[in-house]
TrEMBL record:
<dbReference type="InterPro" id="IPR050297">
    <property type="entry name" value="LipidA_mod_glycosyltrf_83"/>
</dbReference>
<keyword id="KW-0812">Transmembrane</keyword>
<dbReference type="InterPro" id="IPR003342">
    <property type="entry name" value="ArnT-like_N"/>
</dbReference>
<feature type="transmembrane region" description="Helical">
    <location>
        <begin position="114"/>
        <end position="139"/>
    </location>
</feature>
<feature type="transmembrane region" description="Helical">
    <location>
        <begin position="356"/>
        <end position="381"/>
    </location>
</feature>
<feature type="transmembrane region" description="Helical">
    <location>
        <begin position="82"/>
        <end position="102"/>
    </location>
</feature>
<dbReference type="GO" id="GO:0009103">
    <property type="term" value="P:lipopolysaccharide biosynthetic process"/>
</dbReference>
<feature type="transmembrane region" description="Helical">
    <location>
        <begin position="159"/>
        <end position="192"/>
    </location>
</feature>
<keyword id="KW-1003">Cell membrane</keyword>
<feature type="transmembrane region" description="Helical">
    <location>
        <begin position="7"/>
        <end position="28"/>
    </location>
</feature>
<keyword id="KW-1133">Transmembrane helix</keyword>
<feature type="transmembrane region" description="Helical">
    <location>
        <begin position="330"/>
        <end position="349"/>
    </location>
</feature>
<feature type="transmembrane region" description="Helical">
    <location>
        <begin position="266"/>
        <end position="287"/>
    </location>
</feature>
<dbReference type="GO" id="GO:0005886">
    <property type="term" value="C:plasma membrane"/>
</dbReference>
<dbReference type="GO" id="GO:0016763">
    <property type="term" value="F:pentosyltransferase activity"/>
</dbReference>
<feature type="transmembrane region" description="Helical">
    <location>
        <begin position="204"/>
        <end position="223"/>
    </location>
</feature>
<keyword id="KW-0472">Membrane</keyword>
């Protein structure tokens, strides 16, 4: 296979395979259905200013850009798993396009092609491109900023003149001020140490660019605070200061803190960059012990653009090294710079000394797609392995002829809220027992380990998910229904 065709086949596989998982896999608790339900409420209510955690409870944890995109997708394509995930895929494609155009201009076509292939097939990028998350939009904003700043002295045209400011706007509306910190820290080494880079930044239209940035960003922040006072304090101080400094921050209104030992971000980096991070470390080790390799490293260090991409690749993990409240998705903004560095190293090494393993390196891009194909196959055949309530809710809705809301005892998962269109209700065990005592016909779900604690209340197990069992309690007027739990996704109708 010719190199051009090999590249096209690999890249198409990496880009297209997430679409399969986007269609076949249900939203799994907790992040995906939580964000999807917020977007669904936005699309349903037409309130494009305040994202709502649930009716009457504003969601102050994130700005609205990803919710705007997901709500628009719901309006266009209906409320489906695919529509919820499509905006993340589109944001990833846009980031890849900007990265390719920049690297091709700054280096060459070979480096640009390998850069986007590496970036798209990093495990975190690949997974995030098909998931309901806010991070792909932050990554898009970061890519636009970093490529826009570099292209200021390499390209003309309105887009590249304003790409840096548009990227900041995307980041501020996707994640908030964190975007400014990550971009500022990434460009700082080149700004401080490279006089030519400082000169190129002067070519940016700072007055009109900042005006565009303010027009795009400030109105929403002002309107959000006016509509739900307290937003700015919680979001700016709580989410951006207390969350970073306190690994056990108890002020999170919408979830729990993600406690981890400081420095864990580097373990996450190996996972996020897989398989390329391992290859990069092996390549760096090989170059450092070889005389020819050391010469190549010295030549790379003398290239001022290497410093720029190093800042992009390393600042984010270094920044989160000092935080214990982290997720691996925080590394997404750094993977663009890492991809360019690795691609440049592989291309230069191959040109200097063609070796078989360097020629085979692009095939590492198949690792994430193959892993996804296996995962999707297993989950489709065994849907009860996923933490999702899609099948329980769907079964109760289609076969239960519900005259009352589906009840979840003590715990209402986000996926149950999303798939029931927010009609499922949480009740305490005592309230459920009181209602059952009246002889009322009810469908309810209870965690498997707690089902036995209900005692003999006349409820029949119907269907099981990974965590819950769906039960039916017939009223005095009901006909008999067959008993025996089934696995989610494979149950036959039990209502006779």
């Amino acid at each position: 296979m010719r190199p051009d065709r090999r590249y096209i086949v690999l890249l198409l596989a990496v880009l297209m395979l997430p679409l399969i998982g986007m269609c076949l896999l249900p939203l799994a608790d907790t992040s995906e259905p939580r964000y999807a339900e917020i977007a669904r409420l936005m699309a349903e209510s037409g309130d494009w200013i305040t994202p709502w955690f649930e009716p009457g409870v504003p969601f102050w944890g994130k700005p609205p850009l990803s919710f705007w995109a997901q709500a628009a997708s719901f309006r266009l394509f209906g409320v489906t798993d695919f529509a919820a995930r499509l905006p993340s895929w589109c944001a990833t494609l846009a980031a890849l396009g900007a990265l390719y155009a920049c690297v091709r201009q700054v280096y060459d076509t070979s480096t640009a092609r390998l850069s986007v292939l590496i970036y798209a097939s990093c495990a975190l990028v690949f997974i995030a491109s098909g998931a309901v998350l806010t991070d792909p939009f932050l990554a898009l904003g970061t890519v636009l900023c970093m490529t826009g700043a570099l292209m200021a002295s390499h390209a003309s045209g309105v887009f590249w003149r304003y790409a840096f400011f548009i990227g900041l706007a995307v980041g501020l509306l996707a994640k908030g001020p964190l975007a400014v910190v990550l971009v500022g820290g990434a460009v700082a080494p080149a700004f401080l140490l490279d006089r030519s880079f400082r000169a190129s930044l002067k070519g940016l239209p700072w007055v009109t660019g900042l005006a565009v940035l303010l027009v795009l960003v400030v109105p929403w922040y002002v309107l959000a605070e006016i509509k739900t006072p307290g937003f700015l304090d919680y979001f700016l101080v709580g989410e951006h200061v207390r969350r970073f400094l306190d690994p056990g921050w108890a002020g999170d209104l919408y979830g729990t803190a993600h406690r981890a030992p400081r420095g864990t971000i580097w373990v996450y980096w190996l996972q996020a960059s897989f398989p390329w991070g391992i290859l990069a470390l092996a390549l760096l080790l090989w170059l450092s012990v070889s005389a020819r390799g050391r010469a190549l490293l010295v030549a790379g260090c003398h290239d001022r653009r290497t410093l720029y991409f190093l800042g992009w690749a390393l600042f984010t993990p270094m920044f989160f090294t000092f935080s214990g409240n982290i997720l691996w998705t925080y590394l997404l903004p750094a993977l663009g710079g890492f991809s360019v560095l690795l691609a440049r190293g592989l291309v230069c090494l191959h040109r200097q000394r063609p070796v078989a393993w360097v020629m085979l390196a692009p095939y590492a891009a198949a690792a994430a797609p193959l892993a996804l194909a296996v995962f999707v196959s297993v989950m489709v055949m065994n849907p009860s392995l996923l933490k999702t309530e899609k099948y329980l809710v769907s079964y109760a809705q289609h076969h239960g002829k519900l005259s009352a809301p589906l009840l979840y005892v003590d715990d209402l998962p986000f996926s149950a809220r999303f798939y029931s269109r927010n009609t499922a209700r949480r009740v305490s065990r005592d309230v459920l027992l009181a209602r059952l005592a009246t002889g009322e016909g009810l469908w309810f779900a209870i965690q498997k380990e707690n089902a036995a604690t209900l005692g003999d209340v006349g409820a029949i197990p119907v269907l099981e998910s990974r965590r819950f069992v769906l039960m039916y309690h017939q009223s005095h007027a009901d006909n008999q229904i067959a008993s025996g739990p089934r696995s989610a996704g494979h149950a036959e109708p039990l209502i006779k």
